[in-house]
Amino acid sequence: MGATGLSLHIGLNTVDPDRYDGWDGRLLACENDARDMAALARDAGYSDTLLLTDECTVEGVTAALRAAAARLREGDAFLLTYSGHGGQVPDETAGEDEPDALDETLVLYDRQYLDDELNRELARFADGVRILVLLDCCHSGSGIEVRDLLTPEALREQFGTTDPAGVEEASRLMPVARQGALYQRDRDFFRELQRELRADGRPADALLISACQDNQLAADGQVNGKFTGTLLGVWDRGGYRGGHQAFHRAILRRMPASQSPNLYVSGRPAASFLAQRPFTV
């Protein structure tokens, strides 16, 4: 019997303004990204689950992750893609040796979802499940001015403006001032959650390719995000034949210097998986 492949695709063009103090986080291409990645996954032999905008709550995403974890066994494959805003919140539980620690977040419909929450869910998968995560979002710290993240020249090249408001509108960055205000509102909740997660666990065994470096911004688009659109071009409807690391390098070569996708290995996924062609079931 062959391996099973399950995939989960999350795309948010807006968030719930009632949960984000009136901000709706409107983007153009995230639902398209999720649909296109779901189609890619189906063509590759995965059974896909698609969550769009108001379906992308913490409860909905967590339930979908746990359903996949319950089904997959050693040798099976799980693909997770996310397109939407990214943010960061301070991690005040990290200890005095890391006073500036930050947790990256996925900006889900009802609240921000900590990277450690995602790690906890991925760590529930059985040992030997091949997990690939693709994140098309910004990861930019609250308290850092947008104009300090990139040079004016790079901002103008990528977004056509150096005005922070214009950059925030054209990128998948949760506005910096909004991040700070919401963190102050929800500080006690996040501190308690971070303590719980810190006590919890081990790193998941997974491979992550994200849209940009921590100090960069991910561009939205009319049809696809810059990262997702480039990835789809490299994949070439299944014509691509290299491994994961070569796939990352091929995407990187087609991206502007101001947005450099990152390849990150969490835990100890098998070396054979890293060398494997992406999206192999």
Automatic annotation (TrEMBL):
Entry's Gene Ontology BP terms: proteolysis
A single Gene Ontology CC term: cytoplasm
Domain Peptidase C14 caspase residues, every copy: 19-264
GO molecular function: cysteine-type endopeptidase activity
Domain of life: Bacteria
Gene3D superfamilies: 3.40.50.1460
PANTHER family from the UniProt entry: METACASPASE-1, METACASPASE-4
Record-given protein name: Peptidase C14 caspase domain-containing protein
Origin species: Streptomyces roseolilacinus
Phylogenetic classification of the source organism: Bacteria, Bacillati, Actinomycetota, Actinomycetes, Kitasatosporales
